[in-house]
């Protein structure tokens, strides 16, 4: 993997325009933090995005948990993304046949393709899900193509996760087959070297790794979530650490965001030295 290189170096050489932008944002803001803004009203979401904006590279949403989603949610979020220079990741975890995920991604009630730079999917349905989402994001008449990318959910942080072994290896194979659309993975470590994959890596392969289940003060929750620290995640290959309750449920969310930013950046600097 290229995880020993700086974000700046990876931004200069990465073949994917959205990956380049991600690394540029991280470098410019000295932040590899993605906040998982799992709040349930538009006001809370926009308030968090504005207060935490300076300290994060990416905001991750579960847009379908908002009780009052409307076009104002999206215009508000987009305005804050430009104001603070962060990208938007909708954690919809598409998992269906190609024909269905295309309709869930583009149009519909949530219009995800219009505003989410990054989406993710699970590969339970097979490689066709990646092909279907790529087809929609890269259609000739879709205006945002170069600013759209997919992360494959190759592993999960929950206790007893079945996304292991051959399933994780298939995730890597599919990512290799769609390099212009797949940015990398949501996983607990860097992937690609010893997974038992069948598709050979290319010279320029540089998957972006987002690691969730990051928390500084807890080891897990009562529903099977399992946490590691920013240091541990980045040491295992995370390029971006995702923290939800560790930040938004802290007594002072801004203070917490700063702490994750500092620790995430220090761990990154230690890795690239
Ligand atoms: O394996 C995973 C993948 C994801 S995307 N485990 C996860 O927890 N997530 C998401 O990360 C989850 O849906 C939630 O939005 C966030 C973790 O939140 P936290 O409050 O536990 O940090």
Annotation keywords:
binds 6-sulfanyluridine-5'-phosphate, alpha/beta, 273 residues
What is the radius of gyration? 17 Å
User: How are the strands of the largest sheet arranged?
Assistant: 1-2-3-4-5-6-7-8
Structural class, please? alpha/beta
Q: Count of helical segments?
A: 11
Major sheet summary line? 8 strands, parallel, barrel
Low-confidence stretches: none
Name the bound molecules: 6-sulfanyluridine-5'-phosphate
Task: Give the number of DSSP strands.
Answer: 8
Mean pLDDT over the residues: 97
Give the proportion of residues in helices.
40-55%
Strand content: 5-15%
Descriptive report:
The protein is of the alpha/beta class. The protein has helices spanning 7-13, 17-29, 42-52, 71-84, 98-105, 112-115, 128-137, 165-177, 230-235, 245-248, 253-272; strands at residues 33-36, 58-61, 87-94, 118-121, 149-153, 182-186, 208-211, 240-243. Helix 5 (98-105) packs parallel to helix 7. The relative contact order is 0.15. The mean pLDDT is 97. Bound molecules: 6-sulfanyluridine-5'-phosphate.
Question: Would you summarize the structure shown here?
Answer:
With 273 residues, the chain is of the alpha/beta class. The chain contains eleven helices and eight strands. The two termini are 15 Å apart.
What is the fold's blueprint, element by element?
Blueprint lengths: L6 H7 L3 H13 L3 E4 L5 H11 L5 E4 L9 H14 L2 E8 L3 H8 L6 H4 L2 E4 L6 H10 L11 E5 L11 H13 L4 E5 L21 E4 L18 H6 L4 E4 L1 H4 L4 H20 L1
Parallel strand pairs: 1-2, 1-8, 2-3, 3-4, 4-5, 5-6, 6-7, 7-8
Helix pairs in contact: 1-2, 3-4, 5-7
This protein binds 6-sulfanyluridine-5'-phosphate.
